[in-house]
Amino acid sequence: MNLRALQKHWNILGKSDPLRAILTRSRDKDAPWDPAKFFESGVFEIDQVLSWAEAIRPLGEKRRALDFGCGVGRLTQALASRFDRVCGVDISAAMIERAREFDRSGGRSEFVVNETADLRRFPDGHFDFVYSSITLQHMPQRFAKRYMVEFLRVLDTSGLLLFQLPSHRIDHYGWLISRSQRIVEPVLHPFAPRVVMRGIPKSEVVELLARNGGEVLEVGDDQSAGEEWKSYRYLVAKAAKAK
């Protein structure tokens, strides 16, 4: 899968049922999301993760935050209550269009389409906080790794990077079923969008971050990838030598 195919996939989902495409676990799986409850879940998540992160290292400045893989702005708007400005970035123009329609942050949020395998539109050290949740897990490893390096580049020397990413499958039988489905489904339904889960071993993530000037402050368990996956949240700062 290349970026163009990934973009097409999320544009289709963004036009059909964007809320469920982002969060599938509503109370009733067959019922559409209530938008108010959907965005409330974002407020709860940001409250939880910021409390966890700042208990480890408080943020000195809260000027600018980046929400990578923002979708319709569920987390962007929640971050806007904590930071002066928040930029939500997504590969899907359809998702960004809906994010602008849903936006109630009073001008504190900006939503942009990013179609490249980097974040070149942003200068070095631009953000005090970089956050990404349930996004890197849906792209090939080569793109996820490139974006992690970019997260560090755009992070301020006193800022924090926090992202979620699965490491490996716990259910090996489920892995075989999933792999079979990934091979068969495109043949049977070539035009249907598919949400595919992918992971990167924790050791590879930690090594990649360290090699590119990151200091891993904490790695916490995470359940957002589902019970079939071992998933983590990585809290990262710029290493002293990289500042």
* Strand adjacency order, main sheet: 3-2-1-4-5-7-6
CATH class: Alpha Beta
Average of the residue pLDDT scores: 87
Tally of contiguous helical segments: 8
**Beta-strand content bin:** 15-25%
Number of domains: 1
Question: Largest sheet at a glance?
Answer: 7 strands, mixed
Structural class: alpha/beta
Number of E strands: 7
Q: Overall 3D geometry?
A: globular
Distance between the termini: 35 Å
Any idea what the CATH architecture is? 3-Layer(aba) Sandwich
Percent of residues in helices comes to 40-55%
Determine the CATH topology: Rossmann fold
Rg calc: 17 Å
Give the uncertain stretches in residue-range form.
180-193
Task: Give the topology string: H per helix, E per strand.
Answer: HHHEHEHEEHEHHEE
CATH superfamily: Vaccinia Virus protein VP39
